[in-house]
C-alpha cells in the first residue's frame, strides 16, 4: 500500500524541506488540538467541586481563544505548504508526460490510444496529486495524531480505559486491508475503461462527417452508450467498496464509544477517574474518529494513487524506439544524402517494406518518388526522419550515418509536409508561424504566394486571424494542404519533403506551386512524392517504387523512353487531363 510513496521518493527528496515543514506544522497543529479537551475536563472538575472562580474561568476562556487563533494560523500554514506541493507534483508529472509524448515514435502511438493517454494525463494525475496532498495528511493524522491522542488518553486519564476503547482497532486494520486491495484492482479497471471511452469520443468527433454521411448516428450512439455503461458499472464497483468504508468505520467507532462510555462510567463510580476525566476522554474519543476514519481514507487514496501512478509510470517508462547516440556526430551542412543497400520492415511484420534501396543525392537536387499506393514512398521518408529503428544498410548525410547524429539536428534540417496535414486549432497565421515562430506578416504573405494561398486568405472572414477550427475543419482539403506547404516553406529547410502533399489541389494550382518551388529551392534538396506524375516531371532524378524496390529510375525523359510503368501511367494521366480540358 505504501509503495506509492516509495515510487514518488524522487519528488519527496527534491522537496524534502517543504514536506518536512508541512508535517512538523501539522503535528504542532494536532498537538495544540489536544489541549482544549483537558481544559474542558479541568473546568468540569472545578464546577463539580464548586471551586471555579471568575478569575479561573477568564483564564480558561482566554486560553481557549488564544488556542483557536494559533491552531487556525498553524493549520493554514501546513495546509498551504502541503497541498501546493501536490499541485507542483501534478505540474511536474504532466510536463514529464508531454515531453515523453514528444519523444515517442509511431510505434508508441500504435500501442496507446489517444483517449487512454488523455485519461492518464488528467484523471490519473489528479489521483497522484491527491496522494501527495491528502494522502500525506491522512498518513500523518492516521498515525502521528492517533498515537498522540492515545498517549494523551492513556497518560493523562487511564491506560485501562484507553486500551479497552481501542479493542476494535485490530479488526479495523484487517477489514481496511481487504478493502484496499479491492479498491486498487477496481480503480485500475475503471481508469482503463475511462481511457477507452475518451478514445471513442475523440473518434466520434473527428469522424462526425463520415458518421453522418453513412447515417450511422444511431449505431454510434448505441456503441457509445454501451461504453458509457461499462465505465459506469466499473465506477459503481469502485463506489461500492468506497461506500463500505464509512459504515464500517462508524460501526467500529460506535463500538469504541460504547466501551469507553460503559467502562468509563464504572471507573468514575470506583473513583479511579473523575467526571471531568471521563468527559475529556469522550472528547478525545470523538477526536479519534477522524484518525480512525483517516485510516480508511488513507488506504483508499493510496490505492487509487498507486494504481494511477502505475499507469503513468508505464507510459513514461516506455523506452523510445529511436534514441540519440551517446556521442552524436555533428554535420555542419547537408552536401549529400546517400541510401546504401537500405532495407526495412515495420515492427511486427515479416515482409520488408523497402528492399535494397540505393540512392545518391547531392545538394540542390529535386528527387521525385512515385509508385503505386503502398509501394513504400512514405516509408522512405519516415526513415529519413528516423521515426523507426531496425534499418538495414546505411542512410548517410554528408558521409555520416544518420544513426550517429542527434535527432534534433536531423529534424532541424527537414521541412516535412505529410499526406495527412495536421492543423492546430489556432489561426491561419499561427499555423504558418509554427514553421518559424517569429515570422512577420510580410514573410507569411510571401510563402502563401509560393503555396498559392493568397487569394484564399482574402476570402476568409478574418484573413490571417481566421481560426481554422479543430483539425482545420473550416478549411477545404486543398486549403489545408497549402497552409501546410506555407508552414514548411517559411522554415526554409535544407531538405524539403512533400509526401503527396499536392493531391488535393487542381492541376493549374499544382503547376504554379511547382514553378514557385523550383525558383525558391534552387540550392536546396527537395523530395516530392506524388501520384500525379506532372508534379515530378521537372525533378533531377525520379525513382519508381514497386513493392519497396526501385523498379525504375532516371529523369522524366529517360523514364518515358524506358517504356515501363512510369510511361504508361504518365500517358494515361495526360489523356485524362485532356478529356477534362475538353469537357
UniProtKB/TrEMBL annotation:
PROSITE patterns: ABC_TM1F, ABC_TRANSPORTER_1, ABC_TRANSPORTER_2
Main location: membrane
ABC transporter domain location: 337-572
InterPro entries associated with the record: AAA+_ATPase, ABC1_TM_dom, ABC1_TM_sf, ABC_transporter-like_ATP-bd, ABC_transporter-like_CS, P-loop_NTPase, Type_1_exporter
GO cellular component terms listed in the entry, alphabetical order: plasma membrane
Membrane topology note: Multi-pass membrane protein
Coiled coil: none
Keyword field: ATP-binding, Cell membrane, Membrane, Nucleotide-binding, Transmembrane, Transmembrane helix, Transport
A molecular-function term among this protein's GO annotations: ABC-type oligopeptide transporter activity
Pfam families: ABC_membrane, ABC_tran
Localisation per UniProt entry: Cell membrane
UniProt domain ABC transmembrane type-1: residue ranges: 21-304
Annotated TM spans: 21-44, 56-89, 127-151, 157-176, 251-269, 281-302
Domain of life from the UniProt record: Bacteria
Protein name: ATP-binding cassette domain-containing protein
Species assigned in the record: Ornithinibacillus hominis
Amino acid at each position: 500500500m505504501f509503495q506509492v510513496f516509495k515510487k514518488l521518493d524522487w519528488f519527496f527528496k527534491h522537496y524534502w524541506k517543504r514536506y518536512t515543514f508541512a508535517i512538523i506544522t501539522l503535528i504542532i497543529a494536532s498537538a495544540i488540538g489536544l489541549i482544549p479537551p483537558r481544559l474542558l475536563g479541568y473546568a468540569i472538575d472545578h464546577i463539580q467541586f464548586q471551586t471555579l472562580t471568575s478569575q479561573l474561568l477568564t483564564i480558561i476562556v482566554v486560553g481557549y481563544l488564544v488556542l483557536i487563533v494559533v491552531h487556525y494560523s498553524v493549520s493554514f500554514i501546513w495546509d498551504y505548504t502541503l497541498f501546493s506541493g501536490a499541485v507542483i507534483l501534478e505540474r511536474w508529472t504532466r510536463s514529464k508526460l508531454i515531453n515523453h509524448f514528444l519523444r515517442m515514435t509511431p510505434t508508441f502511438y500504435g500501442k496507446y490510444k489517444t483517449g487512454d493517454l488523455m485519461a492518464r494525463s488528467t484523471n490519473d494525475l489528479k489521483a497522484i496529486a491527491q496522494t501527495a496532498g491528502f494522502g500525506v495528511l491522512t498518513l500523518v493524522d492516521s498515525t502521528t495524531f492517533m498515537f498522540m491522542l492515545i498517549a494523551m488518553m492513556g497518560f493523562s486519564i487511564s491506560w485501562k480505559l484507553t486500551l479497552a476503547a481501542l479493542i476494535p482497532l485490530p479488526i479495523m486494520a484487517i477489514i481496511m486491508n481487504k478493502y484496499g486491495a479491492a479498491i486498487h484492482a477496481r480503480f485500475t479497471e475503471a481508469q482503463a475503461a475511462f481511457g477507452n471511452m475518451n478514445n471513442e469520443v475523440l473518434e466520434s468527433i473527428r469522424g462526425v462527417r463520415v458518421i453522418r454521411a453513412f447515417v450511422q448516428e444511431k449505431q454510434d450512439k448505441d456503441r457509445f452508450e454501451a461504453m458509457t455503461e461499462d465505465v459506469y458499472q466499473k465506477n459503481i464497483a469502485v463506489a461500492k467498496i468506497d461506500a463500505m468504508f464509512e459504515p464500517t468505520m462508524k460501526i467500529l467507532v460506535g463500538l469504541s464509544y460504547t466501551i469507553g462510555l460503559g467502562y468509563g462510567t464504572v471507573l468514575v463510580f470506583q473513583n479511579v477517574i473523575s467526571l471531568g476525566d471521563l468527559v475529556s476522554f469522550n472528547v478525545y474519543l470523538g477526536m479519534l474518529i477522524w484518525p480512525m476514519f483517516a485510516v480508511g481514507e488513507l488506504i483508499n487514496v493510496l490505492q487509487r494513487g498507486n494504481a494511477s501512478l502505475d499507469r503513468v509510470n508505464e507510459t513514461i517508462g516506455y523506452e523510445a524506439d529511436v534514441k540519440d547516440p551517446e556521442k552524436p556526430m555533428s554535420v555542419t551542412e547537408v552536401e549529400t544524402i546517400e541510401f546504401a543497400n537500405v532495407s526495412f520492415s515495420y515492427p511486427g511484420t515479416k515482409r520488408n517494406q523497402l528492399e535494397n534501396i540505393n540512392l545518391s543525392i547531392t545538394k540542390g537536387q529535386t528527387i521525385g518518388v512515385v509508385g503505386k499506393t503502398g509501394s513504400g514512398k512514405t516509408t522512405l521518408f519516415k526513415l529519413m526522419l528516423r521515426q523507426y529503428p531496425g534499418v538495414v544498410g546505411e542512410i548517410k548525410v554528408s558521409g555520416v550515418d544518420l544513426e550517429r547524429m542527434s535527432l534534433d539536428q536531423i529534424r532541424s534540417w527537414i521541412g516535412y509536409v505529410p499526406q495527412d496535414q495536421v492543423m492546430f486549432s489556432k489561426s491561419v497565421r499561427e499555423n504558418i508561424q509554427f514553421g518559424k515562430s517569429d515570422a512577420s506578416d510580410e514573410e507569411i504573405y510571401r510563402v502563401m504566394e509560393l503555396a498559392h494561398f493568397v487569394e484564399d486568405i482574402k476570402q476568409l472572414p478574418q484573413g490571417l486571424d481566421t481560426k481554422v477550427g479543430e483539425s482545420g475543419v473550416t478549411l477545404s482539403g486543398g486549403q489545408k494542404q497549402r497552409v501546410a506547404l506555407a508552414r514548411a516553406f517559411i522554415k526554409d529547410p535544407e531538405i524539403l519533403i512533400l509526401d503527396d502533399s499536392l493531391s488535393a489541389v487542381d492541376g493549374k494550382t499544382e503547376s504554379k506551386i511547382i514553378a514557385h518551388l523550383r525558383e525558391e529551392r534552387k540550392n536546396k534538396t527537395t523530395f516530392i512524392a506524388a501520384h500525379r506524375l506532372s508534379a515530378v516531371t521537372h525533378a533531377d532524378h525520379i525513382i519508381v517504387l514497386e513493392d519497396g524496390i526501385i523498379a525504375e529510375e532516371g529523369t522524366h525523359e529517360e523514364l518515358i523512353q524506358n517504356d515501363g510503368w512510369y510511361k504508361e501511367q504518365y500517358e494515361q494521366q495526360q489523356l485524362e487531363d485532356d478529356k477534362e480540358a475538353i469537357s
